[in-house]
Amino acid sequence: MLVFDESVLEKYRNLVRGVEEDAINLHPIQSGGRAGDYPGVVQAVLRFVDGYSVCDFCMKGRLDLIDSPPLCDFHRDIADFLDMDVARLFPGCRQAQYAAFHALVKSEDTIIIDSLAHYSTYLSAERVGARIVEVPHSGYPDFDLFLDAYAEKIEEVKKETGKWPALAFLTHVDYNYGNVFDAKSVGKIVHDYGIPFVLNGAYTVGRMPVSGKELGADILTASLHKSFASPAPSGLLLASRDYAEVIFKSSSIRGPWSGRSFENKEVETLGCTLPGCVVIGVMAAFPYVAERVKHWDEEVKKARYFIEQLERVAGIKQLGQRPHNHDLVHFESEPFFEIAQKHPRKGFFLYEELRERGVAGVQPGLSKFFKVSTYGKTWNQIKLAAEAFLDIARKYSIPIH
Ligand SMILES: *Cc1c(COP(=O)(O)O)cnc(C)c1O
After folding, report:
1. Distance of CA 207 from the midpoint of ligand 1 (Å)
2. CATH of the domain at 356
3. How many structural domains is the chain composed of?
4. Rounded to two decimals, what is the model's pTM?
């Protein structure tokens, strides 16, 4: 636990966060980004905690070309790990998506995105002035994307605008239901039209093995603080050889009066992205992550076990693909909602009952639907967490099969 100076605690309260130590935290956006699980990551970050700490030997003016600390090697290694050609660090997946769109899309262009995409995909499109066409999904209860529709939508755009879409985008695993989509099949469709395929691996890269080449991704984005056991803010943008030049274009601007130019800087990174302890944390996490993705099958087993246990409660139902293939799980929980209606604490009763039983991560106030992630928990923690839900059901006399 961190110790703060008294004067800081006087000014800002609640600076101590103990949820990872004193509870089983099932929060979906936090389970894969826990850096504190790896003492090596914490130590490394502390050694580089001063502002621009990685810039001591920045001789070429680019983060990915620094030899000491070995950022240069790291950039090559992470690209190899994900089977892509070129990698750059960004403050998050959203900035990586925006950079890719900005490089590939001109204002008034149309792009194809899946209708389960993260809000940051929509906002990235908005920020570059793109028109979007959505690939639909099946709706309740599976929320499965109609992947064949990529071809239809691409053709539609051509027919309506006379131009092919500037890119097609797929969210590898959506953040609401934890559905895993067959990126490879979409990659094939998109490549038939010769347009770039952008794959968002926010919930896959760092959790499960991902090969960009095998999936046909021309561009791959990742959230390292979500899925790579890394401190925030950290994300990745990767490109294949074919698209690296346009995505990571070097600056060509020249000061008309001063003659100043910055040819070594890349435009989409604004010259530099993560100049301090965050990138050191990412590097320190890398060996742990490379090892943990090998155990993805076990993580899926844990999620399925957890679903099986919670569905023993009459009226609780897992939404999304069945059987489930990811640790992010969305439940519909009508019986908890009914209790909330009559409970003095309303929807907050579920959060509070769970907290009393040592389980955190269900959003306070939610009872009708909630999301959890079982990622990185031990079997024992998974069993305890499931038992907490069953115990609450018993307390309120909800039948259990
Ligand atoms: C979390 C998430 C993002 C945003 O990630 P940041 O790294 O926080 O920018 C983008 N896309 C998907 C699918 C996500 O789940």
Report:
1. 14
2. 3.90.1150.10
3. 2
4. 0.97
